[in-house]
Specification:
With about 120 residues, the protein is an alpha+beta fold. The protein has three helices and six strands, in the order E-E-E-E-H-H-H-E-E. The longest helix has 18 residues.
């Protein structure tokens, strides 16, 4: 029995359902892929999209409070999509970049990477 978590209109929803198992001659018994969820995620794709959307402008702790989901689960979703995007990114045309470090109240260090694109004529 699988469980998928979602929040709709402020109400936490838990969808329970059996995901069919298939027998693969090479891999053995596996769960079938379903179109509404990423394998072993625990969230429907719509919920993952909402988490990624929020993560662009909010802190993970704020998302956790808003959606009533533990921050570790949110980090797993964000990490998956960031790693996926980095695999697809093409950095071959970058010739130079700058790095700067900032801190806020001596607690957090943030590294900023800036692409420098200067055309000299």
């Amino acid at each position: 029995m699988g469980s998928i978590y979602a929040v709709f209109k402020g109400a936490k929803s838990v969808l329970h359902g059996r995901i069919p198992r298939i027998i693969c001659p090479n891999c053995g018994v596996r769960q079938a892929k379903v179109p509404w969820a990423r394998e072993r995620s625990g969230f429907i794709l719509l919920m993952e999209a909402l988490i990624v959307f929020f993560a662009q402008t909010m802190q993970i702790s704020q998302i956790s409070e808003k959606l009533h989901i533990k921050d570790k689960r949110i980090w797993r979703v964000v990490t998956h999509y960031v790693e996926d995007a980095l695999k697809k990114a093409d950095f071959s045309n970058i010739t130079s970049f700058g790095v700067d470090e900032t801190s806020r109240r001596k607690v957090m260090n943030i590294l900023l990477f800036l692409l420098i694109s200067i055309q000299v004529e």
